[in-house]
Amino acid sequence: MKFLALFSVISGASAFAPSNLSSPSTSTQLSGIKTEIVKTASKIGGPATAAIAGAAVVGTLGVKTILDRPSRTYEDGSVAREYDAWTQDGILEYYWGEHIHLGYYNKEEMAAGYKKKNFIQAKYDFVDEMMKLGGITADSDSGSTMLDVGCGVGGTSRFIAKKLGPNAEVTGITLSPNQVKRATELAVEQEVPNAKFTVMNALEMDFPDNSFDIVWACESGEHMPDKEAYINEMMRVLKPGGKFVMATWCQRDDKEVAFDAKDERDLKFLYEEWTHPYFISKEKYGEIIDATTLMNPVNIEDWNEPTIASWRHSNWVGVYDPRGFIFKPTKYLKCLRDGYCLERMHRAFDRGLMEYGMFAATKKTGASDASEE
Questions:
Q1: Alpha-carbon distance 151 to 283, whole Å?
Q2: Phi, psi (degrees; rounded to nearest 5) at 9
Q3: b/e for 179-208, b at 16 or more Cβ within 10 A?
Q4: What is the dihedral of CA 125, 127, 129, 134, to 10 degrees?
Q5: Contact 122, 310 (CB under 8 A)
Q6: Bridge-partner residues for 301, per DSSP?
Q7: What are residue 198's DSSP bridge partners?
């Protein structure tokens, strides 16, 4: 019991330690934290316990200092490089399966405890719910052409290709050659010939105007350095009357309540740890879509509530089954960083700094490319 009490004190200190650990005021705060822990530990177990506690908290806060320094800042080529690495080491696919996006948990599943739900099934459920939002069904879209912008290893592309049937054609694009290779391998293994994959920049697509009946984008906008070009290109290649549906992480709208210093620090970390150039609000995305003048009114929703469990569930699956990384010691630090970032993401979404933006709209019949107007 003494050990458990001591562990609670130390872990609590690391959880609530300030993130700007290099400032003079923070040093004073950390000194105070250490003093309080040592005092508490001394009461629990005497001088020896106090010494152990002091060393433990210093070590814990030292690790936190390292983890709070982002390691994968966005730069030209960084998105392709990181996704090539994630695909090659296989850890992400081991835990997340074929879908590199959050899962969906309904109210009943949340009430029962999100960890009781199969983590990978939650991702398939998310795709089903996103299809509903976009009005995409086998009955209405069995002969459709679909573009998956930022397809990852092609899990969603193949899943929808199967659902819509053999007359549908799904094309997935990504910046990562390794993802295209893996997506194509899985399409062959699963006998899904109507799902094809290619390396392509979503900001400068090679497709002609009005090429696709459906444009789908799930968690790719986060990596786009030009959000306007991202939206404009998707609207350009969508056929008149076609369906557009998008899911993307968004920062809250700061027009009425400006970001404070903690908000700015937290956003900077979330940008720079997973090679994101920046986020924007769901309201800003709506404005960009409207500005194309090509689309009918867009339906905008925040799916934070049914998706937020994914962040911590991601870490728990690694705790329950360490086989995905335990034999890859060169990846330990990277896995630790990813786990820490998952928790930082959870907290940002939980306190409203981040939102999960969902968008669905159809292209106006007779609409032409805005660049031609």
A1: 24
A2: -65, -45
A3: bbbbbbebbeeeebebbbbeebebeebeee
A4: -170
A5: yes
A6: 358
A7: 173
Tokens 């090539």 — which residue? Answer: 84
Whose CA is closest to 200, among 155, 240, 247, 234?
234
* pLDDT by position in tens, the chain (length 373): 433 333 333 334 444 444 454 444 444 444 554 455 445 545 555 565 545 545 554 555 567 788 888 889 999 999 999 999 999 999 999 999 999 999 999 999 999 999 999 999 999 999 999 999 999 999 999 999 999 999 999 999 999 999 999 999 999 999 999 999 999 999 999 999 999 999 999 999 999 999 999 999 999 999 999 999 999 999 999 999 999 999 999 999 999 999 999 999 999 999 999 999 999 999 999 999 999 999 999 999 999 999 999 999 999 999 999 999 998 988 888 899 999 999 999 999 999 999 999 999 999 998 665 444 4
Give the Cβ contact number of residue 140 at 10 Å: 12
Closest CA to 85 of 175, 203, 193, 213: 175
Residue whose entry in the numeric block shows the structure tokens 């090429």: 211
Which amino acid does the sequence have at 92? L
Is this prediction's pTM over 0.90?
Answer: no
Alpha-carbon distance of 44 to 250, in angstroms, equals 45
Report the C-alpha gap between 338 and 279 in whole angstroms: 19
Residue 122: name the closest of 136, 101, 153 by CA.
101
What is the rounded CA–CA span in Å between residue 159 and residue 170? Answer: 10
User: Which DSSP helix (H) or strand (E) runs through 149?
Assistant: strand 145-149
CA distance 334 to 340: 10
Kindly list the distances between the CA atom of residue 205 and the CA atoms of 201, 230, 234, 368, in Å, as whole numbers in the listed order: 6, 10, 9, 17
- Asked if 243 contacts 234 with a C-beta cutoff of 8 angstroms, the reply is no
Torsion angle of C-alpha atoms 170, 173, 177, 180, degrees rounded to 10: -20
Q: In this structure, how many other beta carbons lie within 10 angstroms of the beta carbon of residue 14?
A: 15
